[in-house]
Design a protein that fits this description.
Blueprint (H helix, E strand, L loop, with lengths): L5 E4 L11 E3 L16 E3 L18 H20 L5 H27 L4 E2 L1 H12 L6 H13 L14 H10 L4 H7 L5 H4 L2 H8 L1 H21 L3 H23 L32 H6 L16 H11 L3 E2 L1 E4 L1 H11 L21
Parallel strand pairs: 1-6
Antiparallel strand pairs: 2-3, 4-5
Helix pairs in contact: 1-10, 2-3, 2-4, 2-10, 9-10
The structure holds zinc ion (2 copies).
The site of one zinc ion has 5 residues, from helix 11.
């Protein structure tokens, strides 16, 4: 990719987590050839929250029923695959990728981390894709995610992984939020997303947008365009939905439990080679927690295993995205030598000084 499309992100090596740093200078016109270094300043907010104290869970049975139905309908959709028309299967895969992009390129990299900028049409497109994912409005998503980065593995982390795999996977959505989440929400700066007209529109019409994009259109289009049965079209919509949901959930559960830590061995977030089989580019989570403002969420960058980065790079080449922030190779290596666990991004043992592979 042309160097002028990217900005180099400078991290203060002494700051434990850069997720909650305020960006003080990121103004750059689309496709500007001017390189602008990004300055960060720490906010003065206390980052400590209780880790995982005793707790009585208050189950939301309405949400449990909704999730149980979605999963039964989705699994039935998988059972119906042999009798679905090939066009419906292609359509389901395509809409799965769109809904994944809505979460990875939209809610995560664009709105949560501001790791790149986009023009208004692309932002609207990503907002519609994110609505398809049934993961609440982007405003809710961003607030929860910024809390996750700032208070990782404490009670103020909405999906605190210290409470176990199931809780961090989806259990946290089935119970009332911990009071610490609401308390610490007040310390999160969300002024950018509350000043974003696209996200405010989505927030206002989130129920209508979700029904339309997640179920109504994905059911009607196959029925009207190529004569699919209602049974197949309806249930394959839920198959798409549960695959997208669980891929997102796995980042919060498996990527905080299993894997290796090339960049920071002191945090629970891991890189997981097995999860990277699904090439969303989000499973290099140890990298992402160490350098949360990198638009690639991975050292890999633009490769076969990072579909979201490829998408953003194409948008940048078309002039629809700009100010792509990335960490320099030099900073990456220094950080690996200082706090890594002695592995590379694939989990292979390396010499931390030279970063060369070591024979075992
Ligand atoms: Zn995480
Ligand atoms: Zn993140």
């Amino acid at each position: 990719m042309a160097a002028w499309l990217r900005q180099q992100v400078e991290y203060d090596e002494n700051v434990p987590c850069a997720a909650d740093l305020k960006i003080s200078s990121v103004k750059m016109p689309p496709n500007s050839e001017k390189q602008e270094s990004v300055q960060y300043e720490e906010d003065n907010v206390e980052r400590i929250a209780p880790q995982a104290g005793p707790r009585t869970y208050k189950v939301s049975y309405r949400v449990v029923l909704v999730y149980v139905y979605w999963h039964i309908a989705g699994l039935y959709g998988a059972y119906l695959l042999p009798e679905a028309k090939w066009q419906t299967i292609v359509f389901t895969v395509a809409t799965l990728w769109l809904s994944i992009l809505g979460v990875t390129a939209g809610a995560h990299r664009l709105w949560s981390h501001q790791s790149y900028k986009v023009n208004r049409p692309l932002e609207i497109f990503l907002m519609l894709c994110q609505s398809m994912s049934c993961q609440n409005s982007a405003i809710h998503w961003v607030r929860d995610h910024r809390l996750h980065h700032k208070y990782t593995d404490t009670d103020a982390d909405p999906h605190n992984s210290i409470r176990g795999f199931f809780y961090s996977h989806c259990g946290w959505l089935l119970v009332e939020k911990h009071p610490e989440v609401a308390k610490k929400s007040k310390t999160i700066d969300v002024s950018d997303i509350f000043n974003n007209p696209v996200l405010l529109f989505q927030q206002k019409y989130i129920k209508e947008l979700t029904v339309l994009t997640a179920v109504a259109l994905p059911t009607l289009i196959p029925m009207v365009c190529w004569g699919e049965t209602f049974n197949c079209a309806w249930h394959l919509s839920y198959l798409r939905l549960i695959i997208n949901l669980n891929l997102t959930f796995l980042i919060n559960s498996a990527n905080h439990a299993y894997g290796h830590k090339p960049y920071d061995k002191h945090i629970t977030a891991t890189n997981n080679v097995y999860l990277s089989i699904m090439p969303t580019g989000e499973t290099y989570h140890n990298y992402h927690h160490t350098f949360p403002l990198d638009y690639r969420t991975s050292e890999l960058g633009n490769t076969f295993a990072n579909f979201t980065t490829i998408f953003i790079d194409i948008c940048a080449k078309l002039g629809w995205a700009w100010d792509l922030k990335a960490v320099s190779e030099d900073m990456l290596k220094k950080r690996m030598a200082r706090t890594g666990d002695g592995t590379d991004l694939w989990g292979k043992k390396i010499d931390q000084g030279t970063q060369a592979p070591v024979s075992q």
